[in-house]
Amino acid sequence: MALNDITLRSLKPDAKPYRKSDGGGLFIEVRPTGSKLWRLAYRFDGKQKLLAFGQYPDVSLARAREKRQEAKALLADGIDPTAKAKADKQERLAVSEHTFRKIAAELIDKLRKEGKAETTLSKKEWLFDMANRDFGDRPIREIDAPMILATLRKVEAAGNYESAKRLRSTIGQVFRYAVATARASNDPTYALRGALIAPTVKHMAAATSRDDFKAVVQAIWAYDSGAPATRAALKLLALLYPRPGELRLALWPEFDLESKVWTIPTARAKMRREHVKPLSPLAVEILKLLKAETGSESRVFPSSIARDKPISENTLNQALRRMGFEKDQHTSHGFRASASSLLNESGLWHEDAIEAELGHIGSNEVRRAYHRARYWDERVRMADWWASQITQFAQA
């Protein structure tokens, strides 16, 4: 017997759910909570299925019957109404939920959980902000290559060719993640390869001849301006030649001054693996003096402006500028090239020992462990020899 609104309104909840049919597979299900839910029973490919139409009275009797007819029309065309409803829901989500901004934020969260360095994530977030300003709130499926190119051209027009290149790559990372999670069908940045002006590769300026590097060391040891953390960081860059970010962000628990070892944690090491470096007696002495001067309990190189933050790379480079070294002569990152050049030039050390000390030895776990074990003693001797060279340069 067909239902009517009077009957529907009079239906009362019972201890168990019960149903009242309207015919043609359409029925209302009354729950113990009092909710009244529209359902359509139908068969597709020989299987019994149920399709939900919503709750009465939000979905009226007339609308429920319209939905029944729409479902019957789909069945007549060989289409499963449940599959169609799911596809429609995904399409709605693609418009309202699956925006570039939300998927980019989700990717950042995934990378953070995977242990990517905060400096790396900050750079990605900065690049995402550029993209978000233009199309962050658009559904990712609606974003195409011309739309992305228009954003890249803005960055390129300002002369920031390297940033434009990185932005294209980072946007592509979001699309590939969206494809992998079934929210996009392709990566439109692939079609943009070759569309941008290729940036000129610029290597970090470094003093790589013995005389030039001696001049840098002499200037650093004679430098009496700036904060203690800045002066100590410059000396340790010369002695240990780590990446500037690895040094600037260092925390005291990473240093075992008794054992003369510095352990750079995975989260901060560029190669995403723990990197252990031997400390020469001179490096230990500098660290002990620094701790006595700063009194810091956590950061080795605290900023003089905000003690809970580290000194910046710009602080180190500006100190080099004040010593008279232009940015095309030597930089804080250049100490790595200086050490690599002079250590290899000496002919005293195995090239793999030098590469291991620089943190370059390959990605294979067995190979890394082999090189660390085989060359550790040589790296300790090399650290002491290098410190003696630095001392000679400083006193010359």
The average pLDDT score comes to: 87
Fill in the CATH topology of the largest domain. hpI Integrase, Chain A
CATH class of the largest domain: Mainly Alpha
Give the second-level CATH assignment, the architecture of the largest domain.
Orthogonal Bundle
Strand order of the largest sheet: 1-2-3-4
Largest sheet: 4 strands, antiparallel
**What is the CATH homologous superfamily assignment of the largest domain?**
Intergrase catalytic core
What share of residues are in beta strands? 5-15%
Outline the low-pLDDT stretches: none
Q: In sequence order, what are the helices and strands, one letter per element?
A: HEEEEHHHHHHHHHEEEHHHHH
Taken from the alpha-carbon principal axes, the silhouette is elongated
Domain Tyr recombinase: 203-383
Family: Belongs to the 'phage' integrase family.
Keywords: DNA integration, DNA recombination, DNA-binding
Pfam families: Arm-DNA-bind_3, Phage_int_M, Phage_integrase
Q: Which helices and strands appear, and what pairs or packs with what?
A:
Blueprint: H1 5-10, E1 18-23, E2 26-30, E3 36-44, E4 47-56, H2 61-76, H3 81-96, H4 100-113, H5 118-135, H6 145-157, H7 161-180, H8 210-222, H9 228-240, H10 244-248, E5 255-256, E6 261-264, E7 275-278, H11 281-294, H12 313-322, H13 334-346, H14 351-358, H15 365-395
Antiparallel strand pairs: 1-2, 2-3, 3-4, 5-6, 6-7
Family: Belongs to the 'phage' integrase family.
Domain Tyr recombinase: 203-383
Protein name: Integrase
